[in-house]
Description:
Blueprint: H1 7-13, H2 199-212, E1 221-222, H3 233-241, E2 246-247
Helix pairs in contact: 2-3
Amino acid sequence: xxxxxxxxxxxxxxxxxxxxxxxxxxxxxxxxxxxxxxxxxxxxxxxxxxxxxxxxxxxxxxxxxxxxxxxxxxxxxxxxxxxxxxxxxxxxxxxxxxxxxxxxxxxxxxxxxxxxxxxxxxxxxxxxxxxxxxxxxxxxxxxxxxxxxxxxxxxxxxxxxxxxxxxxxxxxxxxxxxxxxxxxxxxxxxxxxxxxxxxxxxxxxxxxxxxxxxxxxxxxxxxxxxxxxxxxxxxxxxxxxxxxxxxxxxxx
Length: 252
């Protein structure tokens, strides 16, 4: 399918605020034209299941607040431009199952609070930018990103839920994962399920988590098959004494 944006189209779309499911399931789209979206506040499910779309234009997203499911299952989408996301709070499932997406731009995520499933199953990603997660409450974000071979330091200072965050990211096996501070986390089910971090990085994560986190857990913490060294024995035991149930590969 070929669609074009005329001057009349631009005038007709400029005042649209909610684009809920506007192009949901348009499987014949191979690309999307540059149209006027300067008033848009929500792209909820707008291009959900546009499975054959391979590229996307730099739309005006200066007023955008919600990206819930925007490109969900756009499995052939290769590139996404660096759009203005400075006001976006909700990123739930925005790029869920975008299997062919090669990279994530350095989006402004400083207003983001919810990142449930945002990049889940983006299997072609090999790296990830150091985005701002300082206001994020949920970062259930990279489950199934099997191509990731590195990961940056991020700052989820107020996040309380990291369930499945890096589960099944098997490309991180043996990786020296950065020591990410999680002072407010209370639920961490399957955080690193099926992932084996390097012994040093896992041990450092345990030590840091024990030192910065004083929250009461509601569930367990899963570190996959990662093993800890002697330096982390006391920290791990202290966390368990506080009520954490920790799953890992045991001592190195």
